[in-house]
Amino acid sequence: QVQLVESGGGLVQPGGSLRLSCVASSSLFRIYAVGWYRQAPGKQRELVAAITSGGSTNYADAVKGRFTISRDNAKKTAYLEMNSLKPEDTAVYYCNAKYTSISDYWGQGTQVTVSL
């Protein structure tokens, strides 16, 4: 079992920046692929960005060029750097760590609100 704890959310003005963190409880974190997902009210959860155990990344079209996913395996932590935030980025952001269909874990989420 792996526990994931997200932090770093909050209220930010349009054009601002936030950095989300996801800390894992297990040193096996290094073998997991990590994804950041978000869910806005009334919408389905969607993948925002992902990083493999080897460091390859991919992004949703809506955030390309604005968001950056990274990981520090020594700290058992994944990050999502979010720049040029827009009101449509408002959502609860979730961290996911997955190795197999059985080893698939979620954090509790952190709220990001982009508003004046």
Tell me what the structure shows:
This protein has about 120 residues and is mainly β. It contains no helices and 11 strands. The chain has strands at about 5, 10, 20-25, 35-40, 45-50, 55-60, 65-70, 75-80, 90-100, 105, 110-115. Strands 2, 4, 5, 6, 9, 10 and 11 form a 7-stranded mixed β-sheet that branches. Strands 1-3-8-7 form a 4-stranded antiparallel β-sheet, with no helix packed on it. The N and C termini lie far apart (about 40 Å).
Q: Strands, helices and their partners?
A:
Elements: E1 4-7, E2 10-12, E3 18-24, E4 33-39, E5 46-51, E6 57-59, E7 67-72, E8 77-82, E9 91-98, E10 104-106, E11 110-114
Q: Descriptors for this entry?
A:
116 residues; 4-stranded antiparallel beta sheet; 7-stranded mixed beta sheet; globular; mainly beta; 0% helix
- Say how many strands there are: 11
**Structural class per helix/strand content?**
mainly beta
Give the low-confidence spans.
none
Q: What is the alpha-carbon Rg in Å?
A: 13 Å
Q: Gap between N and C termini, in Å?
A: 40 Å
What is the count of helical runs?
A: 0
In percent, how much strand structure appears in the residues?
over 45%
